[in-house]
Records
---
Amino acid sequence: MSDITSLITATAAELGQRIAAREISSVEVVRAHLDQITATDEAVHAFLVVDTERALAQAAAVDARIAAGERLGPLAGVPIAVKDLLCYEGLPTTAGSRILEGWVPPYSSTVVRRLNDAGLVILGKTNLDEFAMGSSTETSGYGPTHNPWDLTRTPGGSGGGSAAAVSAYQAPLAIGTDTGGSIRQPAAVTGSVGAKPTYGMVSRYGIIAMASSLDQAGPVARTTLDAALLHQVIAGHDPLDSTSINAAVADVVGAARSGDVKGLRIGLVTEFGGEGYAPGVELRTREAVTALSAAGAEVVEVSCPHFVHALATYYLIMPAEVSSNLARYDGMRYGLRVGDDGDNAVETVMRLTRGKGFGTEAKRRIILGTYALSAGYYDAFYGSAQKMRTLIARDFTAAFEQCDVLVSPATPTTAFRLGERVADPMAMYKSDLCTIPANLAGVGAASFPCGLAPEDGLPVGFQVMSPALADDRLYLVGAALERELTAKWGGRLLDQAPLLPGTKVVR
């Protein structure tokens, strides 16, 4: 195994330990990942911008602090990729939209500041569906990202760039955001670990808003422990975010190191399965449940009857919030501006800018949301959706009285082909059937790799959902599953990934 390969395939936890022990330098590690990006990203297109100079400077600063005897955090010096929805001072932030092309924020989001404070090295910004609206990264104004397992297929969305960067060994860690499954669905179809913390446990300050009552940032990684270590860095109360919860962060790292599920009650959601679910997805889900049972968990079936209405509920609430949040992009204050000073600001500049700057999916959701909020329809649509949201939250409450966590497939199918669902919005939206309920209720949820589907050899994700503020249970179950399946496979799932055509680095 070449030196560069050993560096890019190591876990984040391993890299952090070796950097702290001065066995390797952060600069070496960062250069190895920058080389991998150079070798693979023309094919994958996970990154929108790579911040080479600043990343190497940050790495050198970490090395200098360690050499001076400072004791830093467990991820100090480890590279990370950040979804291009998070503001990072001095680096273009586009939200995957042409309407923000060239905009450079004058400040950093709280998540980015916490990454910097913990000594992580930000490699650059990853691709996403425009304003996080999509399930395939195909609505990006800058072209689609490709799945490293099969370049003809989607890496999921909206955070396909973050998941693809991790599964292509371009970065050991990434930050995503999850509004209806945008961390978990990409993680599922790329064989990665992706977690959505309890709503309010990670600050939304400086993250470009899509749907404010649903958005939540979280970790993407290749192992459960790596995801937990990153979760610990970014979580915690932030007075700059009015929705931030002022509560202690659960011991997610301790749970990931333990993986002891003996006596844990696991509820398999009966509503997620059957018609529309790929046979391989259902097979691997059953095998994951069996593995957890073998590890000592108690498994029961649980019904959450209102989950079947989650998709319709989400596609009323989310577009309504999109309509409000995207109204700020008017061509007057920042980002793209179409028209000249002689044009009427409202009738010409705003209309031309929004017409050219927003893509088809963004326009579709703005129109849907504006209609749902319009006079005469508010109660029938938005009001009714909020009532159903309450019933879905009550389903979770009732279920967690019977069990400690809920489990299901993370997505009904494996990665579909690029272009396959672009002309069929409903087919695209159904990718998030399993993930949306957790966002509506604000509970924690994560996807863990549980094998390859026999019909196409592509990754399958296993979803775990926990009560609010009990995010440690996600990692407890994820670690147990990882331990059981890694023993069965003889290594990590991502070790089975095929080589990328034309790349210079062999994994």
Note: Residues 501-507 have pLDDT under 50 and may be disordered.
---
Amino acid sequence: MADPWTVNAGEISAAVSRSRREFLRSLTGAACYQPFLSVSAPQFASAPKSRAQRAIVVTFGGGCRDEEILTPHGQQNVPYLLRELLPQGTFFTHVENRGILGHYVATASLTTGVYETFDNFAAVPPQSPTVFEYFRKDLKRPLHDTWVVAPSNGFNRIGSSDHRAFGPGYGAQVVLPKRFLKQALASNTTGDYARLLQDNYETPLFSPQVEGGRFSLDEFTELLNLSAKDFVTQALTLSSADELSFFVAKRLMRRYAPRLLWITLHDMDVAHAGCFSLYIEGIQRTDRLCREIWRTIQSEPEYAGKTALFILPDFGRDSDGSIGGNGFQHHRTGDALSRTTWMLALGPGIHQNRVVDRPIAPLDVVPTLGAMLGFDARMARGKPLNELL
């Protein structure tokens, strides 16, 4: 497969990174991390050793553009990210995604540290071992110590790979809240619940087959320590599928306190429906939920002072000027603007109010988690981020 990255794309990506850096510095006064402006960054001997014992990864999923978040006009949509979270963490302005721009396959690449190449709409597991498998196998962790909460049925196989040395025996438990809500509602999937049950805005007629489900509805509600009726009642009070995912994640944190938790937020992918206002609403909600996840971490004794939080998009969206693109609506061009994303990391031992603009890859997340938590992501192709260790 030819590398889609060109010299011109690299220049555009670097320019995007510089623009983000200058915007963030003007907004928050964040310090730029000078030793790490080069691609081949040296070891940073004086960095504080990571003290994180737990990790939560949140995908700012569905894809968003700088115009809506990292500009003077767009900053109003992410006040918590910029005003509350960024001052407490390290922000990477230059994350280059050179993989397939489909939500499931891109998220699978994030979890494996390898650019996965399967069909985004195929009901298949990742081909390379996932972070959950490394974590459980190397550290001999029990089943309840790592979870994935995902909105779409298409993510049901993301908890473990089909690699013969790893596999489901070492994987994460995957919770699909919308799937269980649909079961609890039985045939009644209209009315106030319709907003929670839309599974894929990019191809509305596609309904991936959910195979290998580990839980029945009864088992799921028992895991959360509530009845199916309580679950449905709670869902009725929520405004979106991401709200439902956060509710489930918070229940899991309080009941099982998993050391490794992956939460996929996805509401902003409503952009595929072509409604700009709903896309903006999705960004604003994701911003608020990221703040709520961080506050939950700080309020729970098992997590407070022990937990690293990673927030990053799976990828971006087309720019208004992309030939063949549809602006905010899609991510079809694969251009530099749709591939140049960002990441925010917070937690013990992580520098506060710091901006890093050297190029990194989404593949670097898994090796960094391994270095933090003590497992070997041996088949991942990224590198640990020394700025966080």
Note: The CA atoms of residues 246 and 293 lie 8 Å apart.
---
Amino acid sequence: MRKISVRKSAIVLSCVCLTLAIGSPAAEVNLPDIGSPADAVLSKNDEAQLGRAIMRQVRASGELVEDPQVTEYINEIGHRLAAQANTDGNHEFTFFVVDSPVVNAFALPGGFIGVHTGLLEATRNEDELAGVLSHEVAHVTQRHIARSIHASQRQSILSTAIMLGAILAGVAGASGDALQGGIAVAQGTAAQQQINFTRSNEYEADRVGISALAAAGFDPQGMGSFFEVISRGNTPHEYRMPEFLRTHPVSSARIAEARGRARDYAPVHTTDSITYGIARTRMIVNGKDTPEDAVRFFEREAYEYQSDVERYGRAIAYMRAGRNDEANRIFEELASKDPSVIAYHIGLADSLLEMDLISESMAAFERALELFPRNLPLVIHFSEALLRVGEPDRAHKMLLDLLNNVPPTPEQVRLIARAATAAGEAAEANYYMAEYYFMVGDLVGGVSFLRRALQVPDLEEIQRIRFEARIDFIRQFMSEEQLQQMQRGAATG
């Protein structure tokens, strides 16, 4: 599992966005009417464009967790909640995980919702995690960013976009200069003042979120429960809120309000899903500074007294430490005991591969694929294994089948481009890279890859038509400056 370094500048991101910690008691406001005056300041289309622009910076920062098992889980639970809060279907959502020990979650314009690894680790159960996500979903459905900007009337869309982009450039580590970091922090403070949630916004997000929480089958007490975790400082020291966010504490009145609202719903007795435990455990392992630290964490308790999820964590830690034989024995036991858990099959196949038992690893992947066809994390792991053992053609075909049926992330598109390159499919590899650049917002860069695809020898006519049609389509969304840049590139190409 790839270890991603944590940058302290990621804290700035949580200062800009819609966080759990901001807010204090006040009266509620009604749901916004369709055609809210906020539209005059920031339309839904503007919000989506601004959100995509910020996400480009987030991706460039290297802070995104690209673990497909964790990403799949967060999106699964997030969309389950969004289906209840987004009843009119007017909002699209994308959920992602940021590698940061800060206990926080945030909503960006356009329905992009981020969860810090520190928060995932700090939650005590799945209901608490769902409570956090439902709160952030409510911020999006109630359009709190647009409404806050409209209320202040102090900033234009453009100046807001520039400010947020500048801050996130600091998160991305665009410059190591201390002055640049100071500017980013100063801009973060200004942004916090300009896009600060009102008390009523926070209470509204709580109210709408608790309703969605209950409707989705979670314990509605999960939100208030996690607020108590934050307010009491019961999280491990390294995962506590930064001082800046602690200046906007979750008050006892707000906790009481959340608890009281939850009692309006029938009591729910829930059990954590195995996927919650898997995702949280993977982040715990990944968050340890060294493989030895990860192993020590999961060896604190004797193996025979551990739960299956704890044993899974021990196996993952062993793999990170290169103790693949020991990890393999645990994965074999877990997969045999509960073959319905995809993560156990992936772990088994991956550990066999690390032991250089290639045929056994491929057989384990095959068996898993028969049980869970087109499962995204499984196909991603299997494809990476196929590339490693020199079977790029099969990896390319498998990924193409998956990504034609499941919306891919940019990193998954890069993976299929790598598979196509290794398989000698130069035209398709360039096409996939073009789509990657389009997904991260670089239209000019994407078109340049399509032009490379058009220059590949022995290009099939159907490919030429497809690539040219894609260029024509993208041109419709380009600014004058981008069109000129594209023309200059064509002249020098």
Note: The chain has four domains: 10-262, 288-370, 373-424, 435-493.
---
Amino acid sequence: MSTSAKPQVRAFFDQATHTVTYLVSDPDTGMAAVIDPVLDYDPAAARTATRSANLVLAEISAGELELAWILETHAHADHLTAAHYLREVTGAPVVIGAEISRVQKTFAPLFRAADVRADGSAFDKLVADGDTLPLGNLTIETIHTPGHTPACVSYRIGDAVFVGDTLFMPDYGTARADFPGGDARTLYRSIQKILALPPETRVFVGHDYLPRAGRTEFAWESTVAEERALNIHVGDERSEDAFVSLRQARDASLGAPDLILPSLQVNIRAGALPPPAPDGRRYLSLPLDTI
């Protein structure tokens, strides 16, 4: 299978959560993967919707593509995943890094999620560093990139790499590393794996947030060369110790993501909502004074 071919990439930006979902396909065969799909969630009304996911499904239909995989880069703390919904509609399996069991072990007790087994079994396929999946004439290569969370993986497909929250656009920097199981030094070393790829490799990030000065439009694609030279946290050969100091100081100033409590309890279930209570309703848990 080719590792140098150029996949077709379509991006769907959800401004409510600053998340980018990707539809990646092999132009020769029409086989496709969706990366980090978003389930719409209104926190004021506690209502879910599938508008964002349906846009992706419409694009799959319009392009006469066949969805082979639903890929999660990690268990997100800033949006609810639509992986379960897409799996129900298409039958495509949901894939995540094998270390998701560590994340489930941490958070299932917090949400009293007795239905969640801390073995990754809520997902269809667990992948580790170096594992590959077929995508038509292309190959999806897994790169374990922990640091933001222990389960983070990046997916290299042809000349593109999808890095989740490991890296952001060069003028915004890198992911935080202060979540349970996160570590700034580990994150730095994971980033070096990405920066060691060929300089022309296209880098697709999981989120974009506009910097305080300069750029005024959202963006989500850079290159390894641009990240090496210009990333404000790791570019220009910043040392590991300097990065750790910078990252830890920045993380200490950050609050919890707005949707961390709803997101994590859904995402450790691969996007399924909690099971119904005796009254038939589903409930999200909001443990007080714990985050």
Note: The first strand starts at residue 8 and ends at 14.
